[in-house]
Amino acid sequence: MTAYVFPPPPQPSLAVAGDSARFPIRRIFCVGRNYAAHAREMGRDPDREPPFFFMKPADVALDTPTQIPYPPDTGNLHYEIELIVAIGKGGTDIPLDEARDHVWGYGVGIDLTRRDLQLAARDAGRPWSWGKSFDRSAPIAPLRPAADVGHPASGRIWLAVNGTVKQDQDIADLIWSVPEIISIISRSIELRPGDLIMTGTPAGVGPIVAGDNVTGGVEGVGEIEVTIT
């Protein structure tokens, strides 16, 4: 039996819709600027260049619906609605036509972003971690098995703040599709069961403040609700 100098932290996990068993989280991969309109609104060229990635710690994910305190060190907290891919079968150099075989299920998440910190880091050529990887920065609705929802390649993705729709697009507009993302990641890093992929956000990102109620969803996958306190 392994001895530790203090008790190890609990295994991060997410709820599964209609099941008492939970999905254990290993890592969270995030795809940057994966919708052309969002790339433009962030001042970047949306041409189909190789995708880039950043990561969030597993323990910043949390179940929803939930209340999240407005985070410290920012005056510009943004929402970013995303389709979540939950990996159930690991692999390296995964062929494109086999990528879906590695997916356990799908979900809806919000990539909360301290935009002022992210942009300052970007402009200085520094990592985005302080803008993207802070506590409670990845609220995610209960995951749904692919056996129940299939492998969605199209469908509305949307987000509203206090009932006003801010983001509204179709996941068919992803620059890099889910199978492509899985295949590309697996060329550089071995995917493992428990890995999550946040696939990118549509145009319409913007600020939220304490008291705001944020709702959203992906057609055929689920809906999410978060209140900023």
Describe this structure in words.
- This protein is α+β, with helices and mostly antiparallel strands and 229 residues long.
- The chain has one domain: Fumarylacetoacetate hydrolase, domain 2, CATH 3.90.850.
- Helix content is 15%, strand content 35%.
- The chain has helices at 36-41, 115-123, 129-132, 146-149, 178-188; strands at 13-16, 19-24, 28-31, 53-56, 61-63, 66-68, 77-79, 81-87, 103-110, 113-114, 138-140, 144-145, 156-161, 164-170, 196-198, 206-207, 213-218, 222-228.
- The strands form five sheets. It has a six-stranded mixed beta sheet.
- A hairpin with a 2-residue loop joins strand 1 and strand 2 (19-24).
- It is globular.
- It starts with 12 loop residues before the first strand and ends with a strand.
- Pfam families: FAA_hydrolase (PF01557).
- One of its GO terms (molecular function) is fumarylpyruvate hydrolase activity.
- Keywords: Hydrolase, Metal-binding.
- This is Fumarylpyruvate hydrolase.
- It comes from Pseudochelatococcus lubricantis.
Brief overview:
The protein has five helices and 18 strands. The protein is of the alpha+beta class and 229 residues long.
